């Protein structure tokens, strides 16, 4: 399941590290469109948090809600 793979990738990181979409893409196998849909679904469900504005110099970064994030 794509969502489970993304959550596993995010949960495997240090509490100070949020991943960008390209980093998640490298960590999780599968089609990019499916990964992006899973990211949006997980964000909507409140299982992950999206940080950043998505603009140059401030890309979207994702962190799991199952662990605290220290900025």
SSE arrangement:
Elements: H1 2-11, E1 19-20, H2 21-27, H3 32-45, E2 48-51, E3 61-64
Antiparallel strand pairs: 1-3, 2-3
Question: Can you put this structure into words, describing what you see?
Answer:
This protein is of the alpha+beta class and 71 residues long. Helices cover 44% and strands 14% of the residues. The chain has three helices and three strands; from the N terminus they run αβααββ. The chain has helices at residues 2-11, 21-27, 32-45, and strands at 19-20, 48-51, 61-64. The chain has a three-stranded antiparallel β-sheet. The chain is globular. The model has no long low-confidence stretch (mean pLDDT 89).
Brief summary of the model shown:
The chain is an alpha+beta fold.
Write a concise keyword list for the protein shown above.
3 helices, 3-stranded antiparallel beta sheet, 14% strand, alpha+beta
Cα distance spanning the termini: 29 Å
Please state the overall shape, judged from the principal axes of the Cα atoms: globular
Mean pLDDT over the residues: 89
Q: Quote the beta fraction.
A: 5-15%
Largest sheet: 3 strands, antiparallel
Structural class: alpha+beta
Instruction: Please report the total strand number as a whole number.
Output: 3
Q: From the alpha-carbon coordinates, what is the Rg to the nearest angstrom?
A: 11 Å
SSE order: HEHHEE
In spatial order, strands of the major sheet run 1-3-2
Percent range of helical residues: 40-55%
Ranges with pLDDT <50 over ≥5 residues? none
Continuous helix count: 3
